[in-house]
Design goal:
The complex is a heterodimer of chains A (249) and B (249). With 249 residues, chain A is mainly α. Chain A has one domain. Chain A is built from ten helices and no strands. Chain A is globular, with a radius of gyration of 19 Å. Chain B has one domain (18-240): P-loop containing nucleotide triphosphate hydrolases (Rossmann fold), CATH 3.40.50.300. The radius of gyration of chain B is 17 Å and the shape is globular. Residues 1-9 of chain B have low confidence and may be disordered. Classes of the chains: A mainly alpha (249), B alpha/beta (249). At the A-B interface, helix 1 and helix 4 of A face strand 5, helix 2, helix 3, helix 4 and helix 5 of B. Chain A: It comes from Tessaracoccus antarcticus. Chain A: Its main location: membrane. Chain A: The chain crosses the membrane at residues 37-54, 66-88, 109-136, 142-169, 181-202, 222-241.
Amino acid sequence: MTALDFTPAAGAAPRSRQVWAHATTEASLILRNGEQALLALVIPIGILVAGRFLGSRFGLDFPTLAPSVLALAIWSSCFTSLAISTGFERRYNVLERLAATPLGKSGILLGKATAIALVTGVQLVVLLGVALVLGWRPGLDPVALVIAVVACLLAAGAFAGLALCLAGTARPEITLAVANLVYLIGLVGGGILLPVASHPAWARPIISLLPTAALGEALRNGTAMTLVVLAVWCAGTLVVARKVFRWTS
Amino acid sequence: MLHHGWRYSGDVPPPSVVSARDLRVAFGSRTALDGMSLEVHPGRVTSLLGPNGAGKTTFIRCCTGLVEPDAGTLALFGHAPGSAQVLPRVGLMPQQTGAWSQIAPRQLLTYLSKLYADPLPTDSLMTALGIHAFASTPYRRLSGGQQQLVNLAGALIGRPDVVFLDEPTAGLDVRMKRSVWDLVGRVRDAGVAVLLTTHDMHEAENLADDVHIIDRGRITLQGTVKELTRNGDLESVFLAHTSPAEADA
């Protein structure tokens, strides 16, 4: 073995450096994972392309479908990917290991939030580019833009809270199955891809209270009331996650 | 630089870096720690020797702030476990895994080094532990022994004052085990406080300055190896002071 000086000289790196190191590491792992890439980009791009050329046959016009796909991207990253990755981090003691570094629990959460923001940002840029190439021309009403941005932030918080509630309590295999199932339910019946108005009348009041539908409607129509729904979900799920999340499996 | 020359009977021990008094932890109806008291000193290897389910891992989790004791006091460097003053000074090698399945050792160690102000040089550490040969191999494809070496490197990279090694040589072949023992000895000689859990008598005899036998969440016997083996070998002493194994704690 070569000479190494193990004399204690402990000290933490600056907080921003720690969080950035975690965020870039986790984001690179997510983006390199085939299953995550499928959720993040392949499925949304497939829906965009299919919707552009076949959507009218199913009553889906492209100006409605494009913002719906952006909402789907946030749903997949902030809920499904986060739940699955966190579930396995618990199983593999990654969280336990990192909680004993200068990052601590709060740094891990900050780092994960930044990582998911980076992944979602990459997704949105790519999907926005594809949608524009396919002919989407979004309106530039400043109020609608503000509502869209705030809705995205609140929805990201709400979905992350749901993800942590699931991943922090269930076994990773259960988390994997439930996260994928809930992803599909949200996609098909949760008001993400299909507008609330396209569902049966009896189901609309229920669906419109879901965070998935609120995000979808906010991006499609700029409805301000959706922000209230999202804010309640965001606060509620994060509070519950804080109470129920377990760091070890 | 400190050396492990002092003994309780003669020299005055340096102040403890970990001080636990009457710790009690229960998970539902199961008692994990039942009035455990323990001191860990710099420049000493303190071994926590006990059967599966005795409470060894739970004690480490208390020290890293992941489990909050129901009663008793626990301080590291005079501060609360998991606090910002403590975390940079701690190194942890978890019992199993402790890394993302798809990350390569070089990426993991580079990431961990960025969390500390003055980390050990990653390349030198990898050379010292013989990690270079598999530095680019995903963690999940490493053998158990290789994973253990990476985890040990991760525990040491921040130049900690205290390292918690949870069964550090479990699954290692004889040569690797000797290599790890040699490294742990060098770390101790550099003045680092080492707390290692094991149920390997040979390891405790070879490595530990102080042995604490733990059974059902409480210390049943403690002393130096020499003191404990005055009237028989360590295995006999262990069997006389522990109960049959239960489920893992």
